[in-house]
Each structure stands twice: as C-alpha cells, then as structure tokens.
Amino acid sequence: MDAHRAEFLFASPALWRRYLDHIAAGGEGFTRPPITIATAGAAIGRNLVSALKTEFNDSSIEIPYAATEGLMPLTKITATAFLDQTTAWPIAQHGVPLGSPCRDVNVAIIDPGRIFGAEPATAADFLPEDMVGEIVISGRRTSPAYFGRADSNSYAKFHDTKGMLWHRMGDIGHIHDGALWLRCRKKDLATLPHGGALYPDQIEQRINDGIGSQVCAAIVADGRLTIVLPSTDPITSCGESELAVAIAQLGVEARVIILNGTLPVDSRHNSKIDRTALGQVLARPLESA
User: Fold this and answer.
1) What's phi and psi for 234, nearest 5 deg?
2) How many other CB atoms are there within 10 angstroms of residue 68's CB atom?
3) Cα–Cα distances in Å, from 243 out to 148, 189, 194?
4) Quick one: pLDDT band at residue 286, thresholds 50, 70, 90?
5) CA 126/CA 133 separation, integer angstroms
6) Three-class SS of the chain
7) Rounded to whole angstroms, how far apart are CA atoms 220 and 279?
8) What is the pLDDT of residues 149-196, one digit of tens each?
9) CA distance linking residue 29 with residue 69, whole number of Å
10) Considering only CA atoms, which of 245, 265, 261, 257 is closest in space to residue 282?
11) What does the alpha-carbon distance between residue 65 and residue 38 come to, in Å, rounded to a whole number?
C-alpha cells in the first residue's frame, strides 16, 4: 500500500492494532502516510483511536458506519469528535458514538422485538431520542432486498405508512441530538444475573481502557457475568485473581477467566468477538466432566 501511494486506507481494528504493535516493536511504517485513515466496528475504542491519531497526526482519521445492506458510509465521525464525545459521555455508560447520518441516509430506532411482515410501520413504531432499541436505516444507500436470501427479506425489510423502505441493521443503539450511538450487536444483547441489559461492548471498553488490556469479552456464562481475556494479552501474566480485583475496582463484579490462546471471532470479521462460540468453549469442560 505504501509502494502504491494509497491515499485512503480502511482497515479493521484488528489490522490497525497489528500495525501499531509492529511500529512499537521497531518496525517500519508508511514513508508516505495515507491522506485518510479509516476504521470501524464495535471493537474500536478510545485507546485505538488515540493511538491512530498519534501515529497518523497529519492524516484525516474517520470512523464510518455501514453494513453489507447499507453502502458505506451511513454515518461518520472523526477521531477528534470521537475522543471528545467519549470524554463527555463515556462508552461504558453511553456506547460508541457513530456520528450523524450522511446525505441520503435516514436513521431511526425501533423495538428489537417488533415484527412487521406485510404490516407497515407507523410513527409510533419509531422510538424517541435517547431510547435504546434496534437501529434501522432507509434511503438511497439501503439495498432493496437481500441477494440470494429471499427468506430474510420479510423480517429485515419493512415499509412505513409513507411507503419508505427500511432495513434492520441487527445493531442495538440510540440517537442523541440527531447522532447515532452503538450499544452492541442485537445477537449479543443479554440479561445480567441481577437483571438489566448487558451491552457487552460497553463493559469491554471500560475494562480495556481501565486496566490496559488489548481485548476482552463480557458474556453471561453459568449464570454469572464472566470476563474472558486471551492468554496472548500481556496483561494476563498477572493472573486471574489480580485481574478480578482490578476489574472490580472499575465497578464490574465478575468472574475472570484467562482463555488459552485467542478469543474466537466472527468468521466474516476478524475483530468481532464471537460470544456464542466463546460460551460454547467455556462450557466444554463442564460437559466433559
């Protein structure tokens, strides 16, 4: 990419962490950094964004939001705005800021359990600002139908009473002052043992920022809130007990497990933790016993 003088470079958080680790180990970086650096996904956090700003201080750093069924970018936020907003409204309490909708994009929030089918959505189906629910999009950047997945259209695609087509993003979030905030993937939404919603990304961000871990996973396993860290993270050398104390000091009371190797990730995204697969991994010793 450096040899071809790439001017715009979008990469997953996992790749950017690998690049930053390479630089920290004394490796060579870009001789001519791209004009625009971009990354996205729930795996981003203040530590990564801040490190990118330091490494690419002369580049524009952007965080877009998109999906297979929604052309990039749907919303967009700069690194500076991301850091400013997460200082004022910490990720641990409010989620990840995604910025304002781009041109030709409409963003709204609906009840995650609402199923429309052939029934159109009314104004009452769209939740007010600051109320958490499932993110939906409409506009020219939204695909009219899934390719080769006709069975998914009846659930994920719906019309409102004005005939506008909407697409369910499968993400949980809210809108504040017209801007979108991400809480977690809908499939990762869980109920905490003492009640209330578990937005795993928020707890993970709090822990990563608080104790300096590179990556961790928050899941409900065996009826307990469980924080899992990979043994590949240098911070795990202190052991599970010490990590549990450090995490408790952040206000997170949880069982801590150090997993041998790396955390399982989504087969399509090498930086998205597959929490379902992780739960299955943790259950294996219990099954064999």
Assistant:
1) -55, -30
2) 9
3) 46, 24, 22
4) very low
5) 9
6) CCCCCCCEEECCHHHHHHHHHHHHCCCCCCCCCCCEEECCCCCCCHHHHHHHHHHCCCCEEEEEEEECCEEEEEEEEEHHHHHHHHHHCCHHHHCEEEEEECCCEEEEEECCCCCCCCCCECHHHECCCCCCEEEEEEECCECCCCCCCHHHHHHHEEEECCCCEEEEEEEEEEEECCEEEEEEEHHHCEECCCCCEECHHHHHHHHHHHHCCCCCEEEEECCEEEEEEECCCHHHHHCHHHHHHHHHCCCCCCEEEEECCCCCECCCCCCCECHHHHHHHHHHHHHHC
7) 8
8) 888 888 899 999 999 999 999 999 999 999 999 999 999 998 988 888
9) 34
10) 257
11) 11
CA distance 133 to 163: 22
Angstrom distances, CA of residue 6 to CA of 2, 48, 60, 263: 6, 21, 13, 31
Check: CB of residue 229 under 8 Å from CB of residue 258. Answer: yes
Under 8 Å between Cβ of 172 and 184: yes
* Average pLDDT score, the chain: 91
Query: CA 24 to CA 54: how far, in whole Å?
Result: 12
Tell how far CA 214 is from the center of its chain: 15
Tokens of 237: 């050398």
Per-residue burial over 49-63, b = 16 or more CB atoms within 10 Å of its CB, e = otherwise: bebbbebbeebebbb
What is the maximum alpha-carbon separation in the chain? Answer: 59
pLDDT digit string, tens, across residues 202-244: 889 889 888 989 889 999 998 899 999 999 999 999 999 999 9
Check if the beta carbon of residue 82 is closer than 8 Å to that of residue 97. yes
